[in-house]
Amino acid sequence: MMSATDPETDIIQELFAPLTLGATGAYGLQDDVAFVKDATSGIIITQDQVIEGTHFYPNDPLDMIAKRLVRRNLSDMIAKGGQPSAAFLSLAWPKSRPKSEMYRFANGLGEDLKELCGGIPLLGGDTSTTQGPLVASLTLLGTPSAPSGEPILRSGAQVGDVIVVTGVIGDAYMARMVREGIFRGTFLQDCIEFGMAPYPPAIEIAHLIGRYANASLDVSDGLLIDALRLARASNIRIDLQLDLIPISKEAEDFPDFDYLDRVDRNIMLATGGDDYQPLMAMTQESFEAFQKQAKAFDVSVTIIGQCVEGNGLALTFDNKPVDMPLSLGWESL
Amino acid sequence: MMSATDPETDIIQELFAPLTLGATGAYGLQDDVAFVKDATSGIIITQDQVIEGTHFYPNDPLDMIAKRLVRRNLSDMIAKGGQPSAAFLSLAWPKSRPKSEMYRFANGLGEDLKELCGGIPLLGGDTSTTQGPLVASLTLLGTPSAPSGEPILRSGAQVGDVIVVTGVIGDAYMARMVREGIFRGTFLQDCIEFGMAPYPPAIEIAHLIGRYANASLDVSDGLLIDALRLARASNIRIDLQLDLIPISKEAEDFPDFDYLDRVDRNIMLATGGDDYQPLMAMTQESFEAFQKQAKAFDVSVTIIGQCVEGNGLALTFDNKPVDMPLSLGWESL
Q1: Which of chain B's residues have a Cβ under 8 Å away from the Cβ of A209?
Q2: Does this complex have an ipTM over 0.90?
Q3: For residue B124, what are the contacts with CB-CB under 8 A and spacing of at least 6?
Q4: pLDDT, tens digit, 9 for 90 and up, residues B1-31
Q5: Cα A40–A44–A48 angle (5° rounding)?
Q6: Are the Cβ atoms of A49 and B6 closer than 8 angstroms?
């Protein structure tokens, strides 16, 4: 645990203690544990890491990497209908990195906890040094907003449900490809930053998911593989209409896609991952209510498929069957 | 989050899913979050890491390192009067390490969750690969046993309280020194293993701490530095009697200590760290009840000092003042 009674831990008091926002159960990051009082409605818990060399490059700005870490977790929390309530940070910090970089990391973390997570406190965690690459693990606690009082799982989709996604799919993939020099297209700096730390939808969407979705998960490894996971967990088949996948104007106009037909382009965007958008199954009626209410938060919602009897995933484009691509997305350990 | 719908994640299903013990909120490690239902009494949360190269050697057997990880956290939980209820594992796994080592790690983890933590489930976490050293972070949830319904903090010690420690102090230090070749003494293999993963006291002790201690923390960085932390947090001074520190028969007979006087020997043992024994402040009456009830769990309890007006730490041996040593223990980031 973080502790601040030694000179060595002044840095924790300086950089991380402000992120507790004075929450009682954090004890100012000066004790050995944190305390979450009275969680009658239960606690949803997500835990995800970012690892230098695996999830980011050594020279990436660490405020953006901290944000990537928050958003990876926030994306899971929102997709499960959870309202974030507190965070824990476990940090293996390379001895060779200067304090200024830890400052930048803490800054990015604090900004996202404030602006995207609804102002939740950092309650605790652990900071140690490492001789290897930076490893940061965030634990996010949240409160279920579903009437059941439980998280929305992957396994609740029903035959007859529509498959729904928020926002657009593929922008994070494009930004990554530009950044890695694989695509020639020029991208604005904020698009590059977006590629490092894509935005999940507004946290208010969690309430709508809790209320309307039968099943949900976030698109992190690729729309197709995540759709397959939902189908498998729910024992249904998803008929996915590739032509309906919402893509950005930037993707429509992207010069590197000129040599591709629209089917291949959409498959590329739907297997790139890092979208951080919830992929949901719900009734048609629920969709209409969801879409209407999501407008208030500037969140677009699109039907991209149907749940039918069977299992696995089937793809069409303009109602014509499309062969399954070799890779459906990232299949991480 | 761990997920098991892809071939790549079969290893998680094989090695870690059994550790959920079928707990509902783990969803078989096949969803994106975990769920803790109805925690009216509140949840104590600890989070601690083990990092290859910082906390252990590359060739250390990984079952012992998993145990070290559990015990680091369990030691905090017990010292705060918390009864462990669930665990989360965040694992950055080196690509170069074979599956057999992950099996060994999972095995050690499972054994300790079962045998030392009272059979608690692994509820979730995250596993990714790294090109660097192994980093594992464990999050332990627990239920407070104190009548207040809250954890026992560092800050509750009162003038007049006695300072109490369980078990013996310094064995982990000796085992480490022998292992590193700094001490010549021959140690049995199980002592070496003890050095890698020292035992906290039985979890039943958490109930006694919750009931009787005014302040408590675990001795992890060294008895002296941890005593100083308790004193500072409580705004009292601790008069610590070095001659009263409980040490093992092995320490008494240890050939490498022959050249030291008893004062210096006890200072060495009291600054070595990794003892995983709770260091507590309580009234004399509470001590008597505590000691009596701890006997049922084969746990010895020793008074080693007093809380008085003032601040900081003062040392004596056989009632004679002793100068403060240069280092009081590990001062970790």
Answers
A1: none
A2: yes
A3: A45, A46, A47, B1, B2, B26, B29, B33, B34, B88
A4: 333 345 446 888 888 989 999 988 998 898 8
A5: 155
A6: no
